[in-house]
Amino acid sequence: MNFRKTSILAAGFLLGSLWLMVSAYSYQYAKFVTVQDIEKVTGLKGVSPIQKSADADGDLNFARQDGKLILSASFLPASAYAGAKSSQEGFKSMYPGIGEEAFIGPAGKSPSFILVFRKAAYTVMLNTELESETSARIPIEQLVALAKIIASRM
């Protein structure tokens, strides 16, 4: 009986520690882009961070005041850039002036709503949602401005 209680207690501590590590992992990137940065660049008010979910799968995710996802930022190892760039579905064209190299995507879709760049130890993927077939929730020019802010803080 004592063994069972000890096992349950140990499992609880292990799961709690794992949850803290996962939570901390997502927020270790918060220094790179803030709600204030997003509001300043986009002109939106009431932007808030949201938890990771099936729809918001970045390390950092932000929604506008109505709760609709506007930005997911994923931070990957620098080595992931080559694979992302070689994706026929993801790569549209190179974009100069951000990090060490950058591109926008996706291929064949208008408008572009993905920006990927490499700097230092990271590959960063910024992804916004489409508002309609012709409009992204954050235009590519604003994604570029946010990418430059993130790169400047690395």
Key terms for this structure?
154 residues, alpha+beta, globular, seven-stranded antiparallel sheet
Task: Explain the overall architecture.
By secondary structure, the protein is an alpha+beta fold. The strands form two sheets. It has a seven-stranded antiparallel β-sheet with strand order 1-2-3-7-6-5-4. A two-stranded antiparallel sheet has the order 8-9. Helix 2 runs antiparallel to helix 4.
Pattern of helices and strands: HHEEEHEEEEEEH
Tally of DSSP helical segments: 4
Distance between the termini: 52 Å
Q: Tell me, briefly, the overall form.
A: globular
Strand order in the sheet with the most strands: 1-2-3-7-6-5-4
Assess the beta-strand content as a share of residues.
Answer: 25-35%
Q: What is the number of beta strands?
A: 9
pLDDT averaged over residues: 82
Major β-sheet profile: 7 strands, antiparallel
Would you identify the regions where 5 or more consecutive residues have pLDDT less than 50?
1-25
- State the helicity in percent bands: 25-40%
Q: Give me the secondary-structure category.
A: alpha+beta
Layout: helices, strands, pairs:
Blueprint: H1 2-27, H2 35-42, E1 48-50, E2 60-63, E3 69-77, H3 80-85, E4 93-94, E5 101-105, E6 114-119, E7 122-127, E8 130-132, E9 135-136, H4 140-152
Antiparallel strand pairs: 1-2, 2-3, 3-7, 4-5, 5-6, 6-7, 8-9
